[in-house]
Amino acid sequence: MPSRWIATFDEPALVAQALTALADLGVPGTRLVSPAPYRAVHLTGQPGPWRAMGWLVLGGGLCGLATAIALEVGTSLAHPMHVGGQPVIAWVQFGVIMFEMTMLGAGLTNFLAMIVLGAWSRRQVAKAARDGLRSDRLTLAIPTSGRSPEQLQAIRAALVGATGIEEAP
Length: 169
Hints:
Layout (H helix, E strand, L loop, with lengths): L3 E6 L2 H14 L5 E3 L6 H4 L9 H26 L12 H33 L3 H5 L6 E6 L5 H10 L5 E5 L1
Antiparallel strand pairs: 1-3, 1-4, 2-3
């Protein structure tokens, strides 16, 4: 018996109907492979690791800010120069560098998080589903292991509008 079915769809609305029908049947673990962030992705309950992206970027920005403060204060205290009667640690003048380092940390973290999270989420989807993905198609991976023939028939009936359904190991 196959462990999952791979169903391909041409329209996001048809995928949303199929996901709603599968949720009504109580089929957990359905994954959607999508070339774009359609609303149907969130109907699976597993939109991917992208929720963590904002927190990672915030952390990267704060690390950049902390690095800028440490560099500026450390450098100013290591080489104290009194210029125009200003204090050695002049926060107003440090503002530009703190902003730039914050944006550098956030941007670099965003770039690295996109690469790592994209590779990580790609590994969680069946190879047959990834192979069936094109820029104009959406692919559903439905787990079918341990289901009775009646349940499999109900699942197949829920996949109305699928352009193709194939079995994958």
